[in-house]
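Researcher: I need the complex structure. Ligand is pyridoxal-5'-phosphate. Inputs:
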Amino acid sequence: MIRSDNGFFGEFGGRFVPEILLPALTELEDLFFGLRDDPAFWQEYLTLTQEFSGRPTPLTPLRRISKQLGGAQIWLKREDLNHSGAHKINNVLGQGLLVQRMGKKRVIAETGAGQHGLATAIMAARLGLDATIYMGAEDIERQYSNVFWMRQLGSKVVGVTTGAQTLKEALDEALRDWAASVENTHYVLGTACGPAPFPELVSYFQSVISDEIKVQSMKQMGSLPDEVVACVGGGSNAMGAFAAFLEDPEVTLVGIEAGGLSLKDGEHSIRLSQNTGETGIAQGYKTLFLQNNDGQLGDTHSIAAGLDYVGVSPILAHLSQQGRVVPDSATDTEVTEAFSLLMKTEGIIPALESAHALAGGFKRAQQMTPEQNLVINLSGRGDKDIFTVARAFPQAEWAGFLQREAERSSEIMQQKGVL
Ligand SMILES: *Cc1c(COP(=O)(O)O)cnc(C)c1O
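Model: Output:
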């Protein structure tokens, strides 16, 4: 169980927000602290995830890849099999239960690639809440399929046109909305970052992942795993995969960040493993941020939109400083190789984010023995990312496919008189 010291994890965390938001954060924290040790509340949460999202997700042995690599037995925790295709639904369903208890009727969220917005839209539809999702206008263009589904699900998607028109501006806009609407609105934060109590609260709901890994590994391996590996964007799937093992020092916990193209500024999103992140306060909390020379938030790059983030969970910053979590990274090239290996050898289509954990995990497994077990958290599935993946693996034959798809759509739009 993860417990902060008054919102802090070592030197990281805290709550650095405008005064107007403090009552809402305190209300949320009081409610959460009152419920988190209540077995009836946890059971209510588990039932919702079982009935709606298919939990528990399986632990799948990768027999062919393990044999081919010749090291540890590799297992995948299948968060890709959740409803909506990733672990993000765990967190939003949990927050949905808190919203119901607070008696609020409206939720807001910000989203970059659209995955968290989509999960929030799904939760809002299921629980009968109004949802407004803020998204940079540039991201709306890049991730239109998620926008399409959010609107079909009944959510309002607001395009933010200030600044670079991406996640950061969407976050500012969502906070502005919240400051004016805290009375009836809950802000659904999507990862284990942001002001207290969010890092702790999001990790609490995601810890269902490692609770299940623990039970499944005892049953399927006859022991705890030797290593658990997860990718790190904001850090929620990693905290979920690690939480239940924090008191088991024999289980090595490894977080894989986006190594991108190179270690040059702006070409990666490594905050933990290469001393590239510097302690700072932004977006309501204190953590290791990528910063440029004048202390402004730096530019980031990743082949996977969900790992393209300047901050990182204060809990992971603390745990890696303490040596409990081993941070590492995988480059775009390593990621595409791991992606193909999993597809072709095991018939599983991973999200590009999760393929970072695969790349890191495969490398580590090769240094281990066949008697050992390594679990990789497969945070999401990749078939929804078809166009991103087609662009990430450019091949001439797919250019035609992408173009024909666009032409067919515009033909239909013309027939229906939309264009
Ligand atoms: C959003 C996302 C991530 C990164 O977010 P975390 O909070 O670090 O887990 C990783 N994998 C998938 C599939 C995602 O959608």
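Model: Summary of the prediction. Residues 86, 88, 115, 191, 231-238, 306-307, 351, 353-354, 379-380 surround pyridoxal-5'-phosphate (CB under 6 Å).
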